[in-house]
Amino acid sequence: MNSYQYLRNPEYDFMVRIRVDADLSNLKVFYVTHAATVYTIVATSYEEALTVAGFAAEDTTKNSESSY
To answer: Which residue, among 24, 28, 26, 17, has the nearest Cα to 62 in the 3D structure?
Structure first.
């Protein structure tokens, strides 16, 4: 059985599941508002960020994004 280490960081509300030995250069931090709360989500795209968080696009506003 393989035991992989996945990237974790409690600084962010949600993170895409990615192995720590993977290429992290394409990760971005998205700041989004959902239900009047601002969340930080690490993912490769805005669409993936919404999926990771379980948010619907019509209920969410993208405030900004930056490199991870």
So the answer is: 28
Which tokens sit at 22?
A: 């993977």
pLDDT tens-digit readout, 39-63: 999 999 999 999 999 999 999 999 9
The residue assigned the tokens 């019509």 is: 58
Q: Give the residue among 10, 54, 17 at the shortest CA–CA distance from 32.
A: 54
Query: What angle (nearest 5°) sits at the alpha carbon of residue 67, between those of residues 61 and 68?
Result: 100
pTM of the model: 0.90
Report the alpha-carbon angle 63-39-35, nearest 5: 85
Q: Which of 41, 19, 20 is nearest to 29 (CA)?
A: 41
> Could you give the CA distance from residue 63 to residue 8 in angstroms, rounded to a whole number?
23
